[in-house]
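Subgroup meeting minutes
Present: P.N., E.W., G.H.
Scribe: E.W.

1. P.N. recapped why we're keeping a running log of single-chain structure predictions: easier to compare across weeks, and new members can see raw inputs and outputs side by side.
2. G.H. added today's entry (194 aa).
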Amino acid sequence: MPVISLPDRHTGTGAGGDIVALDVHAVRVCVVNAGLEDAVCALRVAPAQRASVGDVDFNLADARRVPGSEAMTILAGDAVVGFYRLDHVVAVVSPRPLGAGTVGLRAFLLDARWQGRGLARLALRACCDDLARRWPAAMLLALNVDCANLVALAAYRGAGFVDTGALVAGGAAGPQRLMLRRLDAAAMGESANG
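Output recorded in log:
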């Protein structure tokens, strides 16, 4: 499983809601399994972010129902800090064909208590590493991001995604930009060094 080290200690929320120091050694991703499901369902985002990322319970259940979709979790150390889903049917992300080997990234979120610590960029790198390992035929990762979500746009750019300039209609939060990231070895090296 790909591991990306974090440089220092971070804080998170303990079981009682208290802020606790966590020695976070790595950010990694894995398929949601029965042992992680409750922690994934407990993830929350700020109210203003709900329209952008959707409901975690719905996305988890829908990913299990839809052929070619996978529910994924983001871990920092042993803490479940985020969720996303992968879709191998790219029509859910782009109305135009993007070619064989394209995977869609949807419903990417970090729990509100873990935002603002640089974990999104590390999680996206771990996602790409995971795809390269488990789905070696995957060559391109595609996602939509709300045009007004400047923080997310910057995070995706920092993780190697390129804004295509194409707008995708729909989305609960308004129009979205289609962003792409190559998954080949050269792009992986560029992202690791960037």
